[in-house]
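Reopening: structure tokens for the adenosine-5'-diphosphate complex, inputs below.
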Amino acid sequence: MKVYNKASDFNPEIPTVITIGTFDGVHIGHRKIIERLVNSAQQSNCQSALLTFFPHPRMVLQQSEDLHLINTIEERKSILASTGLEHLIIHPFTKSFSRLTAQQYVEEFLIGKLNAKKIIIGYDHRFGRNRTADISDLKKFADEFNFEVEEISKQDIEEVAISSTKIRTALQNGEIEKANQYLASNFSLSGEVVHGKGLGKGLGYATANIHLKETYKLIPKNGVYVVKAMIEGKHQKGMMNIGTNPTVGGTSKSIEVHVLDFNEDLYGKNIEVEVLHYLRNEEKFDGVEALKKAMLQDELVTRRYFNS
Ligand SMILES: Cc1cc2nc3c(=O)[nH]c(=O)nc-3n(C[C@H](O)[C@H](O)[C@H](O)COP(=O)(O)O)c2cc1C
Ligand SMILES: Nc1ncnc2c1ncn2[C@@H]1O[C@H](COP(=O)(O)OP(=O)(O)O)[C@@H](O)[C@H]1O
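Re-run output (same inputs, fresh job):
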């Protein structure tokens, strides 16, 4: 798969079949659309292309602080690369881009820059300045500018019964198995290991504190989880806590992983954590002895999880 950071970097001589959207999570429903796109392109001797915008339009237009995505743009790229898609265009969404009229967007951008011969798109897609145009407008443009529109019907979408919103809600409720099933892969987080409060080793559970670079990455509900950590190309078993560590008087949110049967310096290294199972809420214990006891219990349950 080739990746372009703006539409003008993609210079398609062969016409394209394209789809447009955020595709956050690249879940089972998204995968079906991409499969349809790739097959359609093959059958019509076209190239398959997915157009997505970054930053997310809501981040640009509403400076939305509450927008959290299942995938960072890097994660999305790497999952899409495994789908058979030929071209991924990540076009910068700016205020001036958002002011293109529906006709300018179709004529100058989708046709002019992306050489679209066919657009495969959901029944509820909206586009153009203030998102005023809909799929019936797109069909009118299709007649005028000689391209095809293939509509993904409401029924097709509802049949899959999966949406990025449902997955986000599941993650925010700690329903990890449900989210992972919808994603057809494990929800993951990754980042550099940074210094924490320096208390973990003293408790008998050193924890690698993970710094997330992207502020828009969705963080699952606070609590304790069973995880698989990828450290320097090797999978390790672990348990993770997300929260403020109230027992030791913590106030800011941290994401920290204790890796089982492991004793190495991880500061400055990158680790990727696949979240597997929610264990319990983060609690404010009556002192560190009670916390240590709870962590020992978490360890036992985590070991049991991996053994079963
Ligand atoms: C499996 C696990 C469970 C944890 N559960 C709690 C908890 O319920 N309440 C709490 O205040 N902190 C909890 N913690 C966080 C500890 O307070 C924290 O790891 C410790 O203070 C070390 O922090 P540091 O890495 O910043 O030094 C948990 C940590 C782990 C790894
Ligand atoms: N089993 C382990 N799991 C996680 N980190 C470990 C482990 N063994 C050693 N470490 C190292 O110890 C550090 C965590 O120690 P800790 O006392 O919790 O301090 P901090 O507050 O800086 O996280 C990790 O960042 C890592 O470098």
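The radius of gyration is 23 Å. The CA atoms of residues 29 and 161 lie 8 Å apart. Marking as resolved unless the reporter disagrees.
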